[in-house]
Design brief:
Elements lengths: L1 E4 L1 H9 L4 H9 L3 E5 L2 E8 L2 E9 L3 E10 L1
Parallel strand pairs: 1-5
Antiparallel strand pairs: 2-3, 3-4, 4-5
Length: about 70
């Protein structure tokens, strides 16, 4: 499925040195997810950092809202 990034998410990726490839991996194979209405939060540990990806799943694509490390 196509994954697109909001401008906010792109900015956060750069600031937090998180790669788009890592976000794809977190969305596709998360350790766990939390659903809050239409918003999905996916979590996965990558390079000893727990990363949270917040996104919305639409019919034809996924839109990443923000991305950040936890802790």
């Amino acid at each position: 499925m196509l994954i697109i990034f909001s401008l906010h998410a792109k900015k956060r990726l750069k600031e937090r040195t998180i790669k788009e490839k890592e976000v794809h991996e977190i969305i596709e194979i998360p350790e766990y997810t939390i659903r809050r209405g239409k918003i999905i939060e996916a979590f996965k540990k990558i390079n000893n950092r727990l990363i949270k990806v917040v996104y919305i799943k639409k019919e034809n694509y996924i839109k990443v809202i923000t991305v950040y490390p936890i802790g």
